[in-house]
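#structure-requests
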Amino acid sequence: MTAKTIAVVAMGDMGHAVARVLKEHGHEVITCLAERSDTSRRMAERAGARDVKDLVTLVTEADVFLSILPPVAALDLAQDAAVAMKSVGTALTYVDCNAVSPETVREIAGVIDDAGAPFIDAGIVGNAPGKATPRFYVSGPDTAAMENLDGCGFLVKFCGNAPGEASAVKMCYAALTKGTFTLHTALLMAAKSLGVYETVLEELQYSQCSTLSKMENSVPFIPADAGRWIGEMEEIATTFREAGVTRGFHDGAASVLRVLAKTSFADETRETTDHTRTLDAALTEYVKHLAAGQTDRGDG
C-alpha cells in the first residue's frame, strides 16, 4: 500500500478517530483547524494530524479529502473545497463520508464534479475506530482511492457505481439505530408526562426486558449527540420521501432530538457525559422541555 497524504475535516469523534488509524497505518494526515474549537484542536493533536493554515493548502497537499462532519455542514464544506481546488487547479479525490441523503450527496457530487475532481460517496456504519471496526460503504464510478484504505482501522465495502447508493445504505441503517433510540425516548417521555412511567417500566421489565436494558444504556446519554443528529434525521426523512416511504417517522425523531438538545445535558460531549445518570433522572429533565420542543416545530 502506497502512503498517501489524506485530509480529514473535521476533528470530531469519528473524524479524529479515522485520522488516528490512518496515521497509525503510515499515511500522512492533515486537517485545517481555522475557526475550529479547542476540543477539535485537542482531538487533532491526539490523532497526530498536522494542521495547515487554510483549505487551499489542504487541497494542494492532500491526495484524498475525507469530509466527516455534521450533515448540515456537508454541502458548505464541499463548496468551500471546490473553490479552493479551482483556485490552485488541483483535483484531489473528494470523499463525502457524511450522514446525508442520496439527494444531498448528488448535489455535493455535482459541486465537486464542477471543480474537475473525482468524487466518492461514502456512508459510515458503526462506531469510531478504536471502539469498533466501522464499515465505509462506498459508491461511485471509481472508488479505488477508498478501497485502497481498506483495513486501515476500518473496512471499505463497495456497493454501487453511482453517488447516492452508499448514502442510501447509511440512511437506511441509521433509520433503524438512531430512529430506535429516539422512539424509545419518545415513548418514555410520554409515559412520564402521562403519569404512568413506573407502570410502563414494570411492564417492560416483565415482557420486554432486553429492550428496557437497551433503553437504560442509551436514552440517558443521547443529549450529547442530539444537536448533530437532528440534521441526520432530517436527511433520513428526505431519503424516505425520495423512496416513496413516509418521512413522518424521522421528522418525529428530529422533533424528539430538538427537545433533548434543549436540556441541561446537551452541553456534554461523549467524553464528558455523566454515565452514572439514570433513566429516571434523564426523563425527569427531558419532559421539562416537551412544550418548548413541540412549539419550536410548529406542532399544536
